[in-house]
Amino acid sequence: MKAHDVLKHPLNVLTREQRDLFLQNGFLVLPDYVPQAWLTRLRDAMSTLLDRSRAVRESDAIYVLEEGHSPQTPRLHRISSPQDQHPVFWDFMTDPVMTDLAADVVGPDVKFHHAKLNVKSGKGSQGFGWHQDIPAWPHTDFSPVTIGVYIDGCRDDQGPLTVARGSHEGPLFSMYDGEGNFVVKIRPQDLGWLKDDMIDSLTGGPGTTVLLNCRIVHGSAPNRAPEARPLLLPVYSSADSFAYTPSPIPSPHQGDIVRGKAARFASFDTRPVEMPPDWRGGYKPVWAHKKPDATERAVGY
Ligand SMILES: O=C(O)CCC(=O)C(=O)O
């Protein structure tokens, strides 16, 4: 569903001003949005998965390990598809606290695409270079939204999400490097337009929730603090928006309608979108690519 049709539907959670801000800027921050009771359940579930990761020696389809990971001190970049590893995550992602919020920006019929939990363990965990998300999971239109939840909050020194305000209205940039690797990073020569006064760093207390348009240019700095910065990142779309490719982070829940009803017709946006590699051959997470050199325009590193 395109934005002008979304606007015809009544709001559930957001004010009109908040929805307008999201459409204008390509992101929205809701301080302390997720209720404490949910945060407690999410923390318990996360702690169970962190415990399970103690037995993992090498990154796999679920756990992406950080340098220094050990059975004594689990250090994770990411838990892929946490909703398939612990029921609390799926309960949360399908609860109105999330689906009503998604409906406010994608329309009343909401489809789940994928999710990940970026743990960013701390003491120097890598960040993310400037990138756009939609080329990794292109859809027939640009309705997909990532709803990020900072489970424990996020300070400036913990590698917050950093966005280029309004960049969702601009072009999509290539996510391939000069050698044809899909590195999910904009090449330095494509970033000349990015000025400091366009950049917002998204911090907040526990439960602070961040909506990101699927085209917005964003990244994040390393987490230099001693504490981890868990960020839960489910992605939803309008029910009438269809993925062109399999998801890089697969789940049996991909395509589930989590609010409202399934669509009989697809919505199309004619703006072009670069296609990712064939993920059936395996997905190489961003950390598997070489670190950038000092000449790159960095948020992420
Ligand atoms: O976890 C982060 O700091 C950034 C995540 C991100 O940009 C992404 O997953 O697209």
From TrEMBL:
Domain Fe2OG dioxygenase positions: 111-274
InterPro entries in the cross-refs: Oxoglu/Fe-dep_dioxygenase_dom (IPR005123), Phytyl_CoA_dOase-like (IPR008775)
One Pfam match: PhyH
SUPFAM superfamilies (UniProt xref): Clavaminate synthase-like
Keywords noted in UniProt: Dioxygenase, Iron, Metal-binding, Oxidoreductase
GO molecular-function terms, A-Z: 2-oxoglutarate-dependent dioxygenase activity; iron ion binding
Family: Belongs to the iron/ascorbate-dependent oxidoreductase family.
Protein name, as recorded: Phytanoyl-CoA dioxygenase family protein
Organism for this UniProt entry: Vineibacter terrae
